[in-house]
Design goal:
By secondary structure, this protein is an alpha+beta fold. It has one domain (8-152): START domain (Alpha-D-Glucose-1,6-Bisphosphate, Chain A, domain 4), CATH 3.30.530.20. The protein has helices at 18-25, 115-124, 128-152; strands at 8-14, 38-43, 52-59, 62-74, 78-83, 89-97, 100-108. Helix 1 packs across helix 3 (128-152). It is globular. The N and C termini lie far apart (41 Å). Mean pLDDT is 83; it is low at 156-168.
């Protein structure tokens, strides 16, 4: 069993149907558009259950990769991936509500952080509690940005937003 970390969970209500929210959230390559820590995701092909991708994270001058595997993939409902390096699972759950969708992002680590992750977090990220506080604030920021992106609607062809392909 690794070092315990508290589970994190943040929700936002979005004035759009689950299908519109899903189109944005399930495109993991766009994560760098809204995450303050994960700056880029590299994934091959269509993302689905069992898919693997690499995240490139940055905090100040510290840059590190993570290897993720999709462990739950239910279109328009749930996307979850497990990070190999630290044992955490990140989940996006979509719930239909009156007038739109409630999007909830969670981070859990049932077995606790691995020894390597605990040392890395302690030495370079200010410790597990401080980093968890930062992650929770980042989740709030991420969901607010996702809300803005989804509620703005599909982009027109040739949209110049960074990282945006012009259509969803």
């Amino acid at each position: 069993m690794g070092q315990p970390v508290r589970p994190l969970s943040v929700s936002v209500d979005i004035a759009a149907p689950p299908e519109a929210v899903w189109r944005v959230v399930a495109d993991v390559r766009r994560t760098g558009e809204w995450s303050p820590e994960c700056r880029k995701v590299v994934a091959r092909g269509q993302v689905g259950l069992g898919s693997r991708f690499v995240g490139v994270n940055r905090r100040g001058v510290v840059v590190w990769p993570t290897n993720a595997k999709v462990v739950r993939f239910e279109p328009n409902r749930v996307l979850a991936y497990r990070i190999a390096e630290n044992g955490s699972t990140w989940t996006y759950a979509l719930e239909p509500i009156t007038g739109g969708t409630r999007l909830t992002e969670t981070r859990t680590a049932e077995a606790g952080l691995s020894r390597f992750a605990s040392i890395f977090t302690g030495a370079l990220l200010g410790g597990n509690d401080g980093h968890s506080d930062e992650l929770e604030a980042g989740m709030t920021q991420s969901l607010a940005t996702i809300k803005k992106v989804v509620e703005a609607g599909p982009a027109a062809p040739g949209d110049a937003r960074p990282g945006h392909a012009g259509t969803w």
